[in-house]
Every structure is written in C-alpha cells, then in structure tokens.
Amino acid sequence: MNPQFLEQMKNLLGQDFPSYESALCNKPYRGFRINLLKTDEKTFFSHFPFAYEKSPFISNGYYLSEDAPIGNTILHHAGILYMQEPSASLAVTILDPKPGMKILDMCAAPGSKTTAIAERMNHTGFLAANEINTKRAQVLKENIEKNGTANCLVLNSAPQDVAKDFPQFFDAVLCDAPCSGEGMFRKEPQAEKDWSIENIHLCARRQKDILEQAYLCLKPGGVLVYSTCTFNLEENELQIVDFLKNHEDMHMEETDCSVGRSAFSFGMHTEYARRVFPMDGGEGHFVARMRKEGEEGKSYAGLLKSQKLPKEAVSFLRENLQKEYPYYYMNHDKIYAGTSPFYASPHCRLVRHQIFLGEMKNHRFEPSHHFYTSAFSGFTKTAELDDREIMKYLHGEEIGKTADSGWTAITWNGYVLGGAKSDGKHLKNKYPKNLRMR
User: Domains of the chain by range and CATH?
Assistant: First the structure.
C-alpha cells in the first residue's frame, strides 16, 4: 500500500492505526437493503436462502455473512433487494427523508442512496436524482426503474444547471460527493492504485464547487447532508469548515446516530459529523448534516404542459392498472405518469421523469418495461411463473403458458418482474435484452 497514504492514516488515527491496519487484512463488508416499496421483511426472508445479519446503518439494511451470489437471484432482478456496502447507507439515515418532502440527490449514480431515499418517501413528495456522467446516469436510471418509485426525476447535468432550474426549491439535499475513495481500497483495488495527494486536492476543489450548487438548491430551513467514502481531512472536516465559513446561514446539526464514531473537531462543530472506518463495521464513510437558517419562502419550479392522452392509452391504463396515477404527461407519443407534478428543467438534460408508461404506435398504446416495474400500482392481468419458468423469462425465452390474450404482468411469488404479450397459449417475452441473464 502507498507509504504516503499509510503515513496519512497514522497521523489521522494515532493509537487506532493498528486496528485499521489489521482490518485491511479482512474481506470487505458486503450487504443489501430490502426494498420496502415492493415487499416486507417477513415475506422477503421467506424467499431468501442466504445467511445474513442486521446492519446498524439503516433500518432495512443487512450484512451478507457469506459470499452469497445474490446478484443472480430472482429477488435482485425483481428489484426486491439492492446490493449496497453497509456503511454507504448511513448518509440516508442521517438525511432522514420523510414522506412528502422535496429531496435532491445531487451526485446520485449508481443510485444506492437515491433508491434508499425513495423507499422512505413511499411514492410521495418529489425526488430528483442528478448525475453529470452520461454512462453513469443510464445506470442510475435503470436502478431507479428497478426500484419502482413513482416520484423521481432523473437528470444528467452539471450541478450549476440543476441550481438554475431549482433555486431554493428542496427541503433536503444529499451531496454524496465524488472523492478520492480511500474507503474503497478493500473493495476496489483500482481506487488504491489511483490514490495520490494531487488527486485529493483535485477532489476537494470539485467538492467545493458541488457544495456551492447544493446550497443554492436548498430552501431556508432545509437540510444539507454532505458525505464521502474517503478518510483524509481535506475532503471531510476541513471541507465543511471552509463551507460554513463561506455560508454564515448554515450550521452543523447533531444527529441521533451512534454508529461509527464522532468526526474530528476543527471548530464549527465538525465533531457532530460521523465517521466510519473498516474497524467500525463498514468500508468507510464521512457524513455531515447541516441546516440552512431563515424562514421558508415560496419555492417555484415551472411545470410541463402535457398533450391530451389518446383514448386508446386511457382505456389501456384503466383496464390494466389497479389504481391510476395522480399525474400524467405526454410528449411526442411518449406517455409518463407519477405521483408528483411534472416539473420543468429547461437547463438540464432529462433522462427520465417519474414513470415511463409507454408510447403510442399506430393508434395503439404499447407499454414499456418501466410500466411493469413501477411499485405504485398493482396489475389486473398477471401470469404467475414458477422457478423454472421465471428463469426462462429472465433469459429472454418464450413461455408456453395459458393466459388471457394481450399484455400481462409477469409475476413470481406475486412479485412483478416485467411484461409479456400473450396469444392465449404462449407468452411472448418482453423482458429488455440488456437486462437478460446470460
């Protein structure tokens, strides 16, 4: 391991350095969250064959106590579980999302924290997830679709553009900033190879800019949570001190969280933040919670104007959904729905606005895969598959099974995995090719 990095950690940890050095010899922690938008814990564990232990970092999080291949399970494909390093969920616990809030995840890919926030919002309020990197934004979109939340706007934009479209708009902002990744060394060897003092300086400058835009998006009275998965002071406590000095209307808040340990004290109550090292039960995280002072005023964002939904689409939705969405939006034959108004974001690149239901083709409505992965509504037409059949479905094969003609939701133990189109005797597979098992 880089001698310069080890010297940094010796200076940082002092007498705790030997326990850190010893922890580096152990396997990295593995974990998962249960998606409470789609299931409950009792039902989930009746289908989960692997050993597990409760995680202290979030209420629906667990450690995997063995090298279990949960990424290949039906539960994973159905979005019933999300694989996540345990301590990475601490930022959401400290953010403390509530139903009905307006929340921004500024640096959201791959979606670990966005989906955890969504699970607590339970299809209410408004959630915006932004990722500046285009390829990572697509991964973010796929994970949010799989999660099933019905209130999320996905953006692929610079933080400056998000701030232009949503000034002082959000009740809470999570800024899980790109960092030097010192907490990922056990999990991602490339992070160790890429480490350098110069990269720390680069990350710190980038974080400062992102924090400034997060501040502009936050309404007075709102909460800003800043987090990293790195250990050095420059990207953590000293970053917070610099930010607070430049924003007198922001102050640190204590949290009810007792996991990990208190951050180091550098004034401005930086000790209120929480740190996690490998000897604390996680790979490594820093989380600080801050509050913006002032009275809440009116926050405004423009709304999108929808085309009128065609009667064919309206008929299909009424026949196939157990309950209708509160909001719909149509543009260029594509139809969307959600539980939040459709806010305009003219300066941003839009990836997905809530639920993409499908599109009109030759006066017919054709549902999308996202139509079926949404957890907001159940479906009136379903085809339940057994273990063997569902594996064929996930591989993209046609299924010989009697069902009512037309579109139907494909289920396994009641969980929806996607859609298919039946001719009465066979189910034509509509599971997306890029998601199929190989």
Answer: 3-29+85-292 (3.40.50.150), 304-378 (no CATH), 381-438 (2.30.130.60)
